[in-house]
Amino acid sequence: MTLDAESPAYVVQHEGWGELVMNRPKRKNALTPDMMSNLRTGLAALIEGGSNAILLRGEGGTFCSGLDLDVYSAGVPDDAGEIALSLHIELFECPAIIVGALERYAINGGAAFALACDVLVAGETAQLRIGEVKQGAAAPMNVAWLAARTSEAVAMKLAGVGEPIVGPELLALGLAAEVVSDGDVLTKATEITANLGGYPTDGPRAVKAGIRANSPVADPRVWFTAAREAATNKGWVPQRVD
Asked: How do residues 68-89 score in pLDDT, each as one tens digit?
């Protein structure tokens, strides 16, 4: 699969690091099965290319608005769920440090990608919102990432209450590494990623491997699959709510 500027997601390879870009700016980078397939391909290419660090960002100044409701409500391929599950497993298993540029907002399915980042740079007014609870959904990938990264109380605050959490609060909760002015998010995230890319070969990868060795996630496929299987409403279809 060839990824370019016309693809729903694309990569840019730099020396020692790379960019993994969600590329549907007219839809605020809303997720589709094709985009997630592209993200899987791009992630594998950057890892194979030897990246020490990967910048995960959205094209056009927005991180990700979640699932594209028009696409999903019209029906998607039978393997769409497996594509999403595999992508999250691969993000967890990624040996490179993933740096996220949280611009404007990361909503629902997009929030899970923000939580997948090892180092998250957020704007002062940027929002992370896990609002599936208001739609009658279980938010399995968000729940899996929260359980891996934070306490049950914090997980319940985000996923159980369903209200937006802004940059400074994400920092206070330990989910963002740094908060900067809204216009500086991409610059700062790029700077961090490029710096990591310039470190000695495999340095960042070795540090991440050591941290991961103490993670509660012994087997990522079991972990993320269990979160999905715990959902009691597997037939739920994404829907709009006010």
From this structure: 989 887 887 888 889 999 999 9
